[in-house]
Amino acid sequence: MPIILRVKGYRIRFYEADLDEPVHVHIEKENKAAKYWPIVPIVVPDLREVRQFAHQLHKSGKVWAGEFQGWQAEYYPEQAEPPLDSRMTFTPAEFCIGESDIWFFSMMWEHGSDQPPVEFLDDANILALAA
After folding, report:
1. Largest CB tally within 10 Å, which of 27, 61, 67, 99?
2. Cα–Cα distances in angstroms (integers) from residue 97 to residues 31, 75, 103, in the given order
3. Tell me: the pLDDT tens digits for 58-114?
4. Cα–Cα dist 127/122, whole Å
5. 3-state SS assignment for residue 36
6. Half-sphere exposure (CA, 13 Å, Cβ side) for 123?
7. pLDDT at residue 51 above 80?
8. Distances in Å between the alpha carbon of 131 and those of 44, 106, 107, 125, 128?
9. What's the confidence (pLDDT) of residue 112?
10. H or E segment at 96?
11. How confident is the model at residue 130 (pLDDT cuts 50, 70, 90)?
12. How confident is the model over 4-36, as pLDDT tens digits?
């Protein structure tokens, strides 16, 4: 990786994709090196508001892609055709928001459009604010 900064003999390299690790930097000086995973403050949406927005999209039944509360999101309505290589009899409606390895939330109407959706939340990389 290219050196992004040199300070007092230290070389700092930015790694976006390194052995399936999150974004991080390597700090090197002489024969020594260290990795640092920066903590970047982000605002995670309130899941009640996300659910409400997803249900509005689901009610409209139209494909949608854009931003919601600063995060990329998309909605796809149910399709009569089943997904490839699946035993499902239809393609369920799906809503997702976020970025994998940062924060991600999805809702899938696996049991039909008139049933409650199955939810998945990946917030393992989110640190709570100290009180």
Report:
1. 27
2. 42, 9, 8
3. 999 999 999 999 999 999 999 999 988 888 899 999 999 998 878 999 999 999 999
4. 12
5. strand
6. 15
7. yes
8. 17, 29, 31, 19, 9
9. 93
10. strand 94-99
11. low
12. 888 889 998 888 767 777 778 889 999 899 988
In a domain, 28, yes or no: yes
Count of structural domains, the chain: 2
pLDDT at 131: 54
Torsion sign (Cα): 18, 70, 41, 9 = positive
**Residues 25 and 72 both lie in one domain:** no
**Same structural domain for residues 56 and 114?**
yes
On whether residue 127 sits in a domain, the answer given is no
For residues 21 and 51, membership in a common domain is answered with: no
User: What pairing do the DSSP bridges indicate for beta strands 64-68 and 32-36?
Assistant: unpaired
- Predicted confidence at residue 101, as pLDDT, reads 76
Q: Which residues of 27-42 are buried (b: 16+ CB within 10 A; e: fewer)?
A: eeeeeeeeeeeeeeee
Residue 23 placed within a domain: yes
Look at the block and give the residue holding tokens 């899941």: 47
Domain span at 94: 47-122
